[in-house]
């Protein structure tokens, strides 16, 4: 498995001949160096309905004639509104796709589409994603605060790579994310959802150094940098 950070929470995961993208916020992402038109994938996965996570999902799904995989509310909305292929799931549910297995975990956050007039459309429950491809498992926590069942997620799954938000304000901050990492016990952990906007400015290198307190391996991935397991 190869996991590439594309900036903010956007992630490209590859194994064998398959590629999927998670939370494809690219066009208006100041950290992104990849354009939606350049993305070639077998599926688009979305953790929740906020604009910095849904991002360019519709364009990418249509360009690749591939499904958007998300909770039922997001999948149904994007299918009806934009005519994309979609596969709806929900928290605790898993499904085996050609490219690998997807399981949605809980995440504590909000989820809504913001329309141009300012109205909000409910986007169902936010989620984290356990993605297994090529015999390896990647845990993308999505946008979330710390919650106790992260320990259970770590106990029930052998997680090879984990991506945890550290930005604070909207998600876990560095201290809570450190505790989450100690429960999840991934083979390697890297931070996401920081430094994109002023309210979530953090020192990712300092956070990764603190992982050593728990004998955990961490890495800071700049945009378009990867880790392989």
Task: Briefly say what this structure is.
This protein has 229 residues and is of the alpha/beta class. It is built from 6 helices and 15 strands. The strands form 3 sheets. Strands 6-5-4-3-2-1-15 form a 7-stranded mixed β-sheet.
Keywords:
single chain, 229 residues, alpha/beta, seven-stranded mixed sheet, six-stranded mixed sheet
Radius of gyration equals 16 Å
Global shape? globular
Termini distance? 5 Å
Number of helices: 6
Structural class: alpha/beta
Roughly what percent helix?
10-25%
- Please, what is the average pLDDT? 97
Content of β-strand: 25-35%
The arrangement of helices and strands along the chain is EEEEHHEHEEEEEEEHEHEHE
Main beta sheet strand tally, sense and closure: 7 strands, mixed
Poorly predicted runs are none
The total beta strand count reads: 15
Please state how the strands of the largest beta sheet are arranged side by side.
6-5-4-3-2-1-15
Q: What do you see in this structure?
A:
The chain is globular. The mean pLDDT is about 95. The protein is α/β, with parallel strands linked by helices and about 230 residues long. The protein is about 20% helix and about 30% strand. It starts with a strand and ends with a strand. A 7-stranded mixed β-sheet has the order 6-5-4-3-2-1-15. The protein has 6 helices and 15 strands.
């Amino acid at each position: 498995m190869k996991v590439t950070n594309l900036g903010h929470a956007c992630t490209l995961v590859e194994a064998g001949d398959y590629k999927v993208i998670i939370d494809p916020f690219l066009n208006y992402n100041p950290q992104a160096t990849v354009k939606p038109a350049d993305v070639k994938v077998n599926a688009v996965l979305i953790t929740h309905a906020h604009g910095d996570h849904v991002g360019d999902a519709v364009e990418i799904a249509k360009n690749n004639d591939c499904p958007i995989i998300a909770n039922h509310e997001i999948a149904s909305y994007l299918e009806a509104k934009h005519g994309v292929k979609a596969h709806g799931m929900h928290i605790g549910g898993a499904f085996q796709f050609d490219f690998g297995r997807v399981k949605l975990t809980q995440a504590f956050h909000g989820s809504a589409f913001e329309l141009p007039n300012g109205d909000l459309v409910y986007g169902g429950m936010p989620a984290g994603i356990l993605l297994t491809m090529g015999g390896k498992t990647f845990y993308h926590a999505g946008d979330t605060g710390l919650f106790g069942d992260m320990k259970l997620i770590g106990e029930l799954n052998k997680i090879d790579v984990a991506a945890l938000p550290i930005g604070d304000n909207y998600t876990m901050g560095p201290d809570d994310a450190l505790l989450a990492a100690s429960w999840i016990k991934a083979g390697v952990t890297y931070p996401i959802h920081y430094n994109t906007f002023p309210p979530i400015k953090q020192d990712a290198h300092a956070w990764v150094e603190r992982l050593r307190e728990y004998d955990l391996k961490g890495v800071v991935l700049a945009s378009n940098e990867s880790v392989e397991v």
